[in-house]
Hints:
Elements: E1 7-10, E2 16-21, E3 27-33, E4 38-44, H1 49-63, E5 72-75, E6 81-87, E7 92-101, E8 105-114, H2 118-128
Antiparallel strand pairs: 1-2, 2-3, 3-4, 5-6, 6-7, 7-8
Amino acid sequence: MSEERPALLLGDGENKLELQRATDDFNLIASLRTPDLTARHRFEAEPWASFKDLAGLLLGLADDWKGFDGERSWVAGDGSFRIRCRHDRMRSVRIEVGMRRWDEWEIELPISIEVGHLDQMKQEALRFFAFAM
């Protein structure tokens, strides 16, 4: 029997991002899903603090639910996974998620999270990133 790995699902619209822990604590698996496409990519952070930084970025979105200026971003140690977050100061946070695998393929998709769902996302992110805190 295989052990189910913890996962964090982000996105209120058709586009979703799922982060899943790999079999070790040094890698995450990102899955971008749309109605017509699913892309998966395994990435690592260097050093360990980077996953803590990613957690902090996501937790900060909920803490600043009323809005924030500019853009907040995080990039994996090898540059193959990135997120950029912007708040519309009205009702949602837009997260641009980018993944690439060397020179084989690259994808960037927007996902959104309604402000009313940020607190739930924060609780789920705290559970998911407990290994890195």
